[in-house]
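Title: Prediction job returns without error message
Component: structure pipeline
Severity: low
Priority: P3
Assignee: unassigned

Description:
Job completed but the reporter wants confirmation the result is attached to the right record. Sequence as submitted:
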Amino acid sequence: MSTLTTLRAALRLDLNDPVGTSARWTDADLDRAIGRAVSAYAEILPRVQSVVLTTTAGSRIVPVTSLGTITTILSVEWPVPLAGVTGEAPRPPWRHDEEAGSVTIVGPEVPAGEPVRIRWSGPHVVDGSGSTIPEGDEALVILGAAGHACLAYGTPASDNFRYTDGEAGAAVDDTAIGPEWRNRADELLARFDRDLRRLGGLRSRSVRARVK
């Protein structure tokens, strides 16, 4: 399983920026670029999880704050069949209250302490312990991170000038440095966006085919 450290190392290889005193980017810079790429990835291909919780007898409200950050509640199954019981669980009408951090089961029946399965999508996690990005998609995320790193580097930290180097006796123009990095960033981010949306479309069609 990859971690933030291994993804950062791979990103440095792609940027040709080895660790050392001459490195263009600090680890913090690259971690921020990876985070931005992971966020963009999650908008198209979010992390999907499911959990079985227990309803409270006489209450339609199921707290979901323990699930962490929720982008979308995808499905609610209630009551979940007991172990050994075949068949699909019913999918009752439900309502997600984001502010309250709960799901409300609506309909004629009221929960009586049965299990409920909730499936939801949320952000991916990449940290020092691991990553929820599928291994096959890591290269795509690194591509996006490279674009964001170049974009940040294209913003000059000091003024750029055209001047004559007295020792070299030649004109120097460093005003083109920023635009060149931004052009490179635009190219990388365009590839990232194109490949990400293509992959998202392929995964979506695959899911629909399995459901049919």
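Comment from assignee: result matches the submitted record. The first helix runs from residue 4 to 15.
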